[in-house]
Amino acid sequence: MLAEGSPAPDAGALDAQGKPVRLAQFRGKLLVLYFYPMDFAAGSTAQAKEFAADLDLFKRTGAVVVGVSTDHPTVHADFAEKNRLRFPLLSDADGSMARSFGVTLTGHTAPHVTFLIDRDGVIRKVWRKVRPWGHSEQVLAATRAIAR
To answer: Closest by alpha carbon to 75, among 114, 48, 113, 115?
Structure first.
């Protein structure tokens, strides 16, 4: 897995509308990039809802939140609509984005792993074994510290 201080790769994936997105598009902003196993799973849903509830607080720090799983874009669209998510979900169907960050897939799904990437594209913080409940609060605290 990529370490803190490493440059984030300019990986790409599809958004919930099936349009290509590259991580370089987020340069100049703090980026909370979180990998999760699958849409609609209990932990993934809780994590997404917490990030959604804290989204305005993240925005105040200049941060963007982006979720990534191997789910198909249409599944992401359904998940985002059902949970009223206002941040992008990316479909890493072939696992290439996860692999570019050194995240190992098991059974074609990523574990819960979060990267906080600074405005220059450098990984500033990595959470390797994420417990989804309460995680947004931890990430927000680290984001605020970096945003100063």
So the answer is: 48
CB 47 within 8 A of CB 136: yes
pLDDT of residue 103: 98
Give the burial class of 64: count Cβ atoms within 10 A of its Cβ; 0-12 exposed, 13-18 middle, 19 or more buried: middle
CATH number of this structure's domain 12-147, picked from the four choices 3.30.565.10, 2.70.98.70, 3.40.30.10, 3.40.50.300: 3.40.30.10
Q: Is 110 exposed, middle or buried (0-12, 13-18, 19+ CB in 10 A)?
A: buried
Cα 22 to Cα 7, 8, 19, 25, 146: the distances in Å are 15, 11, 10, 6, 23
Look over the chain and give the mean of its residue pLDDT values, rounded to a whole number: 97
pLDDT along the chain (148 residues), means of 10: 97 97 97 98 98 98 98 98 98 97 96 98 97 97 95
